[in-house]
Design brief:
The chain is mostly helical. The protein has 14 helices and no strands. The two termini are 17 Å apart. Keywords: Membrane, Transmembrane, Transmembrane helix.
Length: 295
Amino acid sequence: MLLSTVLFAGMNACVKQLHHLPALEIIFFRSLFSIVASYAALRRLGVAPFGHSRALLISRGSTGALALMCYFASLQHLPLATAVTVQYLAPICTAVLGIWLVREPVRPWQWLFFGLSFGGVLLVGQGSPAAAGRAAVAAGSNWVYLAVGVLSAVISGLSYNAIRTLRGREHPVVIVFYLPLISLPLTAVACLFQWRTPQGLDWLWLLACGAFTQAAQVAMTRAYQLERLGRVAPLNYLGILYALALGCWLFGESFGPLAYAGIGLVLAGVGLNAWYTGRRSAPAAVPAPAEEVAA
């Protein structure tokens, strides 16, 4: 999961470089790269690409595609800090939905740790350069897209729980394969109505975006298959730290003291939750299936 958050941060940096292209067009190229890479990997491994638990796989692909589209829509119409902050509700939605979907309880102390992490994300959002635009959201001008962002987080929680349910049933790359399998035709239709031909270095950034996405999806899928939801889901919060660092380094963004206070809370919540769940579940650690170890 730590590797996944780093790779997704690289993907976000590529998307930021491609701000002049329509969001669904970026998703289209991202999906095109991923479906080719996934299919090639499955052929090399000798794994049937369409799997066996097709209802669950379609559920994972559909919810993942819808969550991605909602997230990009919120990014286009909300201040960046607001959209990213709302998206960080996804790990909480994953753990809470997991209570009913995969019967994994969230212990009382974990609610406190989740609260610390979420409070840190809010502080980071308040202290980031884009926070000035939050006033417009508070005034009610962008409530629709704020709701779309929340919907993205909830649907992401459904998608991650589907991944967890597929543990031991399907190869991780098969699960990854279903996301572009569904998102590619959906975005292709959308591109018929909104298209802007990439120019020059745009193609390099699109290629890098696809590569980062593919590797991140494989790493994330493996994490959700091999460990408890409540333990790995909050590690997604570390992505905000990478976003802050890349913003400073690549885009010259500066941050206020609230953002750095938020970093401390995020690290505290994530670290305490990992320590607590690790201590509680150490005697019953989840072993990796043999085929995944071999892969």
